[in-house]
Amino acid sequence: MNKIIVAVTLLVILAAVNWAIWEKEGHLAEGEVMYLELAPVDPRSLMQGDYMALNFALSNRIQSTLHQAGADGDTPKAHNGTVVVRLDEKRLASFERLDNGAPLNGNERRLGYRLRNGQVRFATNAFFFQEGQAERYESARYGQFRVNTDGEPLLVSLHNEALKDLSHEPYEPANK
């Protein structure tokens, strides 16, 4: 009897994990492409080991707007929210307004964010890369996201000023 319970539990866990993977793969394949401009981070934490600490200009704008709106001290410390962004011809997203449920114009999209400990985050605050490849990503200026119909973003890659994917650029380490 215990073997049956263990086997059923294992099958349920495997099914749940595979469902989550299938959902993320669909999100990456079918999500709308959007670029968010990177904002400076503490230079001491820009490159830490095999990842880059990320901050986005849009995060700073949302944080500032939330702070202004909560000038009376009611700014929430943790919540999930939605912002309306405007996409330009290159698919660069810029702040339009905090979402109030109003209908969107043709080039506007909703984008979900998380506020935790006073910091606005989209999907992640770090980009992981292969050991020894930090130099490859030093010219990063944009993060490419795939955004699903619910406004949930997934970080796909980092791009330079010309929107070239840095993970596909030829790379030669400087110390060779």
Question: What does the model show?
Answer:
This protein has 176 residues and is an alpha+beta fold. It has 2 domains: 1-30; 32-168, no CATH class. The chain has 2 helices and 10 strands. It has helices spanning 2-30, 57-69; strands at residues 32-37, 47-48, 51-53, 78-87, 93-98, 108-116, 119-121, 126-128, 142-147, 153-159. Strands 5-4-6-7 form a 4-stranded antiparallel beta sheet, covered by helices on one side. Strands 1-9-10 form a 3-stranded antiparallel beta sheet. A hairpin with a 5-residue loop joins strand 4 and strand 5 (93-98). It is globular and about 60 Å long. The protein starts with a helix and ends in a 17-residue tail after the last strand. This is GDYXXLXY domain-containing protein. It comes from Vreelandella boliviensis LC1.
Explain briefly what this protein structure is.
This protein is 24% helix and 31% strand.
